[in-house]
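Researcher: We are triaging several targets before committing to wet-lab work. For this one, the compound of interest is zinc ion. I'm pasting the protein sequence and the ligand SMILES. What I need is the predicted three-dimensional arrangement of the protein with the ligand bound, expressed as structure tokens, so it can go straight into our comparison scripts without reformatting.
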Amino acid sequence: MAQDYYNMLGVERSASVDEIKKAYRKIAMQHHPDKNPGNKASEDKFKAATEAYDVLSNPEKRSRYDQFGKDGLKGNGRSDFYEGDLSDLFQNSPFGSFFGGRGRDRQQPNYGEDLRIKLKLNLQEIAQGAEKKVKVKRYTSCTSCRGNGSEGGNAIEKCGLCKGHGSIRKMAQTLLGNMFTETTCSNCSGTGKQIKTPCRSCHGQGRELIEDLITFQIPKGVRKGMELTLRDKGNVPPRGGISGNLIIQIDEEEDDLLKREGNNICYTLHISFIDATLGCEMEVPTIYGKVRLKISPGTRSGKVLKLIGKGIPTVDGYGTKGDQLVFVQIWTPQELTKEEKELLLSLRHSSNFIPKPNKKEESFFERIKSFFQG
Ligand SMILES: [Zn+2]
Ligand SMILES: [Zn+2]
């Protein structure tokens, strides 16, 4: 560890003992091996910071270090060294509650992983809400050992090697006195616990992979990209703890006829120019089923009819709903029989068939604009 102790803790050379404690506490909290199992970089950082703290928190050692660097600490022949018993760094440290009381109460809770699934919904389900069932492969508490990983659910014993501390403290005699180093217990990987006979069905993991059928309610008005969180329906962590969540990502199925625009539904209705001219009644699909729509005589192409409340409810549940907008399109025949053609030719120059747009009427685009605004 070639790094300078002050740099190691990120403090000035003039830092007070309090500042040093604070800096160390921060690093230790972040890089403690219990919090980063198997992370070598974190472990190294934790060890280096502990070493730095050990020196800088002790006025004698700190002044040696300031004067002579690390060589001063090793002694190199000097006999006037501080010989006192080094205080137990952890027990007398300001964060005794964090490191102290080794064993069970020191444990951070285990968190299980969140699971994510995508769920496609059609417009009907979005508009009316739906009860959905999904099959999810997830870890749940092992039924044989009731989640503790011990055969038959028997009580778990303290690790014999570390006596439940989760770490091994080694003492080294130095000229400065007894130096303590701490390493994560290899026997229990820092858990402080030891399972005598691992549960046969989960191999001591305390959890089993199952295919779970989960039923839940989709609220009305959801849209693509929204996420629903089902608490505790994710994975149970090994040997118990706090379950992860199941996160449902909402996706929308495209409808062939009905297009969603916010909470409104847009639909294009094609009618013949005869129906548009004479007026008629048409059947129109909505997400709530078919409705009959009156087309008044003389309906122009591009007219927008509003079916109030046939849109999608707002997701906040205050009961407000969008509308369905019906865009009327006049169908122009692509082919004609001889008789049809003759009939139309006879009407061609009839005065009522000659366009006479009224200037006072709103233009097509203005009408569409007013629908989306109003
Ligand atoms: Zn088990
Ligand atoms: Zn152990």
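Researcher: Any quick observations?
Model: The radius of gyration is 38 Å.
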